[in-house]
Design brief:
The structure holds two protein chains of two kinds. Chain A has eight helices and no strands. Chain A is mainly α. In chain A, helix 1 packs antiparallel against helix 2, helix 4 runs antiparallel to helix 6 and helix 5 crosses helix 8. The termini of chain A are far apart. Chain B is an all-alpha fold. The chains are: A mainly alpha, B mainly alpha. At the A-B interface, helix 1, helix 2 and helix 4 of A face helix 1 of B.
Amino acid sequence: MTGSVLWYSSRATGAVSLVLFTAVMVFGIATTGRAGSRVLPRAAVLRLHRTLSLLAVTFLTVHIVTAIVDGYVDLSFWDVVVPFRSGFDPLWVGLATVAFDLMLAIGLTSVLRRFISPGWWRAVHLTSYAMWPLALAHGWGVAGGDGRTTWMLLVDVACVGAVLIALVLWRLRGDLHHDPAARRAGAARHRNESDMLR
Amino acid sequence: MSALNSQHTEYRRMRRRVRLLTAGVAGFAGVTAAAVTIAIAGAAAADQERTTADQPAASTNSGNGAAVAPSKPNQQWANGPTLNPAPRPQSGRGRAHSSSGAS
């Protein structure tokens, strides 16, 4: 058991990371739709999106480092950033690598947001819609994990459901700001950002 | 002037509330995530120990025995990823040896 602690930790933190990134996605979608309530104001939604993303990155780091340091599967630190080259399960690990690279891009552009145009920041941030399904697929497909167990499949279904509900409630319905003037200003800003990207 | 003060007080109260709310929710999420991680890892380890106890012979085969894993398992892949195309291990049964992906 003691020799396997890293391996079990890696598997467990992988599952928890998926749930945390799902929460980050949900709060991100709610932020985009400017959703908020008396109980959970918009400012709190945005702060939760940021804080939970840090928490998710922490668990993801533990997931990656323990998998590599454990040494049982053939992974190196290069496999974390260069996709589809790992000796172990290259396809499914490669999907996670692509997801990790997208996450790096999203994180870096968010840290450097004041130095780049809002349009570019938004464009990079939209890749999170690719990052999250890739991470989900990695968890489902990678060998030796819990991806095909009943409880993990239930977690996957719950995560997909949460994101779909958030998309329907807050993204597809457009700007939910209660003030019409703020909604018009938001729409104008969005148009400007789109023009800057052309 | 008093209206400005009132607005400022309201803003500070709101900001404090948002910070407390965020810290509370994020803290709860962090503690829960850590607890769930420990629970999942513990359950997987217990399941592995049961498997090893029930099937001591099988546990020495590749793909089934975390508790009796070879000391340097990566030697199996030293010359490439396809040297040990063992079947995908059953979920929750221990470590992965397969380099051939899910089947």
